[in-house]
Amino acid sequence: MGLAFFSHFNITSYNGKEIEPFSMWIFWYGLSMFFIFFIFGFVFQIVFYFLLIFFFTKGANYAVDFSERLESRFGTMDDKKEKFNEAEMSPFSIYKGGTLLQKQQAHKYKMLLCAFAPFLLINTVKIFIILIAFPTVNIDINDDEFDVSIFNKMFNSPVWAVLDVMDALTIAIWVPILMALAIRELSNSSTSRVLISSLIIGISVSIFFYFLRPTLFG
Hints:
By secondary structure, this protein is mostly helical. It has one domain (2-73, 104-217). Helix content is 66%, strand content 8%. The strands form 2 sheets. A 3-stranded mixed sheet has the order 2-1-5, with no helix packed on it. It has a two-stranded antiparallel ribbon with strand order 3-4. Helix 6 packs antiparallel against helix 8 and helix 8 runs antiparallel to helix 9. The chain is elongated. 18% of the residues are buried.
């Protein structure tokens, strides 16, 4: 997604000297930007997802005593260590022929991370929107100074509001539903109570992270 965003910056010159569109300098510069965006995006998504799992788990603990149900159902790591078979672990299967297969903590995070699968589809759609809808900006790179005004045209685009609404609705509705299903399967608890707590967490996070952004109402 970051690479799609960066593709709208057209580097035309360096210190006043014109640069060929397909020169090696452009290639290595674009490759470095790709790795920067990739590493930043990967780290951000991992931290963001585990932060959301923490909030959803707290909500489930309040609604159905999620952690206690896990311990009573699967036992602790030390109690059940010899009963687990790691080779047969699956993020979607809890029992096989009545035999417990998963380690509690590892399996819990695998199950809960599956709730963020909708972002694979949403991010793909967002990439196409970024490629099509954002304007292209010409850049003259100068070692002495950097003109930050070149970002104004890009960051003032109304397309950001569309992207934020897509993320907000995914966090507020789609992810909580899948998270509630995962928590229900793990803890064998009430679907409605888990769903209500997950929706409250999802809506709160979407309001705080997305609907309060200036791209929507600023």
